Amino acid sequence: MVCTSCRNATSSVPAGWIGEDEDPTIGYALIECSHCHRLMVIQEFNEWNGQDLVSSGAPVVIWPVRDTQLSVEIPDPARKSFEEARACHHAGQFTAAALMVRRTLEAVCIDKGATTGSLQVKLNELKSKGIIEGKLTDWSHDLRALGNEAAHDTTIFISAADAQDALELAEALLNYVYVLNAKYNAFKARRTTPVAPS
Length: 198
Ligand SMILES: [Zn+2]
Hints:
InterPro entries: DUF4145. With 198 residues, the chain is α+β, with helices and mostly antiparallel strands. It has five helices and five strands. The structure holds zinc ion.
């Protein structure tokens, strides 16, 4: 699992499990990250396989959670792809997370009318339309390259840190394109509208 404080994949063994209302299929534990030694509360789901109670997937960190809520201004296809990328990362599926980040970029391009050619061509179209600029253009090309590695090179597995950075850059990109641009335009419109003398 991935530490939500230092972002490293951590292998701590829980000191003990606490059940919920005597339900053996849900367990909670307090663990210490083997890298940064900060504490986390994790939740694990179990199921009966006929003989034993076995884990039914990677544990989920329920505290501390560092995810921010995405703005409602971000259109559904981009938001859902991004949220799936985040869910993959939480479950320790870093290569899948990088793929979903790439898909998030595709969704932004399509939403902004760049619908033909490779993702590289579409991102360049966003740049020429002034939707992304400067560093953001570099970031999106790097995220695209990471996603391509995840998609096409089956010997490569993306690291926890690379997947986390990709998520943070993609979130910044979404906020820039859908939230901050609109905010800035509204701010500029207010500032240039003459105020009636009092
Ligand atoms: Zn840690």
